[in-house]
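Quick one: structure tokens for this chain, please?
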Amino acid sequence: MEKDLITTDQINYSLPNNWNYDHSVEKVQSLVFKWKNISVEILNELFIAREMLRQQGKRTDLYPNGDKLNWTTYLKEVGLPYETARRWLGQYDHITNSILPVEIEGNGLIQTEHKCPKCSYEW
């Protein structure tokens, strides 16, 4: 498969010899559609899990083997950092089952706290 790739020495990555714009657009549209649906599905399940785990006092099925399950344990088991889940759920509207738009500052830039110390690139 390496023979089908073009290597660029300057930036050290490979590109395919043949690339079709329309095919790429179609492929990415499909992936974006799936990603949006999967994202909402994940957020909905996270929201439900968090709310159910908040109501542990009312449930007896959350205490297998005498261990009390909680939101932190749940996130650890699914492999999601607490802050990431908090941030994601902050952008989720459970009533409309949709992802809220990102707030954009008045200058049209998205506010960020991350900056590369060498080149000042922000993310």
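The chain has a mean pLDDT of 78.
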